[in-house]
Fold this protein.
Amino acid sequence: MDSADKLCWVSPRARLGVDVRLGHFVVVRDNVAVGDRCQIGDHAVLGMIPTVARSSTLARLQRSAGNEELWLRLGSDCVIGPCAVLYVGSIVGEGSFIADGAQIRERCLIGQNVIVGHNATVENDCTIGDNTRIQTGAYITAFTTIEDHVFIAPMVITTNDNYMGRTEERFKHRRGPTIRRGARIGAGAVILPGVEIGQEAVVAAGSVVTRDVPPYSVVMGCPARVVREVPAEQLLFPRSNG
């Protein structure tokens, strides 16, 4: 570990692998396990403990999650940018890059070689597959599933609550979107709750997606509608012949 003369604070309950490099003023809290050769940028906070407003719906979720001891675990060769904040209870796969100012909330599962861009937010209880890229300023709402090799362009917004905070009925229907492998979401698109974006589908920039998007299709507009199929030469996962 390299942290000499950098005024870092590392909890005695944290576990750091070999050749971990800490920037200036890094905070590593309890129940954090950092893999070998990770680099942690200046002012980053690892192992943040969730705190919520008394009126927040997250308070109910945390009570239902039980009292199990949660850890933040970083795989080997991760890079965490300056001022990033990662919460306990999440796992980040090896080789992933969490950029400056990004936030990863609790109980998230982040795959290998994932990029979470500058000031992007991944809320609680999300799953993100290997080799996915989430660009600057994107907002990934709670309970979202994103599979492997997905591209999320800057400023994309995902949502999980059609009731927008009104009535108890919303708790039965709250669902984040599901984005299947190889899909691409253009800049500034808005994805409504519970929508499924099919494998290798493309959502054009600025679209508002209100219903499921078929695999291998291009959609655009408000509301988004299918306009054509994705060209075969762009596919990472071509259609099967079966």
About this structure: The first helix runs from residue 57 to 64.
